[in-house]
Amino acid sequence: MSTFWSLWIIVLTFACLILCAGILWWCLKDKMGVEEGQSMGHSFDGIEELNNPLPRWWSIMFIVTFIFGLGYLALYPGLGNFGGLLGWKSSNQGILSLEQSRAEAAKGEGIVQYDREVAMKDARFAEVLKPFVEKPIAELAYDPEGLRIGQRLFLQNCAQCHGSDARGGTGFPNLTDGAWLYGGEPETIRQTLLHGRQGVMPGWSSMGEQAIEELASYVLSLSGRKVNDKEAQAGKLKFAVCAACHGADGKGNKALGAPNLTDNIWLYGGSRSAVLETLRNGRNGVMPAWKDILGEDKVHIISAYVYRLSNPEKPAE
């Protein structure tokens, strides 16, 4: 905040306080020219106004509140750029990254409420989550209490993209159908959550519109869709540029996160227009890394919940 606006807020604040104090002082003095308890000469609907003083309890509460307000403004931030005598902050201001936030928290300067609460909650939850973290993901996925915790964590942190039912949407994978870009094994899911994923599908508009149309026909034919056979045959010859990631058979490559094009499951839509859009302009998908945001313990529990979504039945031992 600039110095001008800081001073503006300070001046207005004290002007209001002085005005309120002046009004109270004026009301406590008899300035009406009429003896106490006598009529003010006003009446309405049979009710007559008398010259009575302010109730003492009301005046005392006003004075106490006024003093409290002055004390609050002195101790806590609120007057422009003045940070308060206690140095308290609701959070570290101007933080642009997690690394910067941790660096500020490590300094321990003043009382930063958010940092204190995060540290307190982390310490508390570390003990609560410990019995669940010690279980392998594949086992924890069928623990009722661990599953409930995992669901809550999922709803708080993952549902914004994948939906509360985890069925995803355009550009956000469905986590319940068993179709995995990078693999659905417990440890693979955990690694995805810890470190995130970044998928890049290049655009092929430089090939020309006719080639794009032919490629789209071939790609759609891979999942059994009815297309122009002539176009599909021409597109098959051009599919070599796609096979490097999706494989010669179009079944994808989990090491690269390249989708299976034969299962009729489409991340960005399976209509011809959607496939054409993908081929022309490419796609860029980002799954954020949660290791530094949630920590490994919570990621472990969410991994178990996500694993359970596509494995509702516990494998036979």
From TrEMBL:
Residues engaged in binding heme c 1: C158, C161, H162, M287
Residues reported to bind heme c 2: M201, C242, C245, H246
Compartment(s) where it occurs, according to its Swiss-Prot or TrEMBL record: Cell inner membrane
SUPFAM superfamilies attached to this UniProt entry: Cytochrome c (SSF46626)
Listed GO MF terms: electron transfer activity; heme binding; iron ion binding; oxidoreductase activity
Pathway stated in the Swiss-Prot or TrEMBL entry: Energy metabolism; oxidative phosphorylation
Domain Cytochrome c: 145-223, 230-310
GO biological process entries: oxidative phosphorylation; proton transmembrane transport
Cofactor note: Binds 2 heme C groups per subunit.
Reported cofactor(s): heme c
InterPro entries the UniProt entry points to: CcoP_N, CcoP_N_sf, Cyt_c-like_dom, Cyt_c-like_dom_sf, Cyt_C_IC, Cyt_c_oxidase_cbb3_su3, Cytochrome_c_Oxidase_Subunit
Tagged with keyword Ion transport: yes
TM segment ranges: 7-26, 57-79
Family, per entry: Belongs to the CcoP / FixP family.
Subunit structure: Component of the cbb3-type cytochrome c oxidase.
Protein name in UniProt: Cbb3-type cytochrome c oxidase subunit
Organism (species): Corallincola holothuriorum
Taxon lineage: Bacteria, Pseudomonadati, Pseudomonadota, Gammaproteobacteria, Alteromonadales
